[in-house]
Specification:
- The protein has about 90 residues and is an all-alpha fold.
- It has 3 helices and no strands.
- The radius of gyration is 27 Å and the shape is elongated.
- The protein starts with about 20 loop residues before the first helix and ends in a 22-residue tail after the last helix.
Length: about 90
């Protein structure tokens, strides 16, 4: 009986990490942090130095998520009006 020789080649396994799109990055920050639009914009600019993203873009992503029901409505703090009380002692 003849013996067969088998050639085995060792291949290096490399993990490929796909970068998030800027839109996905912004939506992730909106959904998972309490950052303001300006803080998200600063993060986008540091992560993607050549990005042309503006404050209006971040606001659009937030509005889009709100319209799809993924985040709640805007919550505004109620204005507190100081009241001076007069008391007779």
């Amino acid at each position: 009986m003849a013996k067969a020789k088998i050639a085995v080649e060792v291949v290096e396994v490399v993990e490929v990490v796909k970068a998030l799109s800027i839109g996905a990055f912004c939506k992730d920050k909106i959904l998972n942090t309490n950052w303001t639009n300006m803080e998200i914009l600063d993060s986008v600019k540091s992560t993607y130095p050549n990005a042309k993203t503006s404050y209006a873009c971040i606001a659009w992503y937030r509005s889009d998520l709100r319209s799809k029901g993924e985040i709640g409505p805007r919550v505004h703090a109620k204005k507190v009006v100081p009241v001076q009380l007069e008391m007779d002692i």
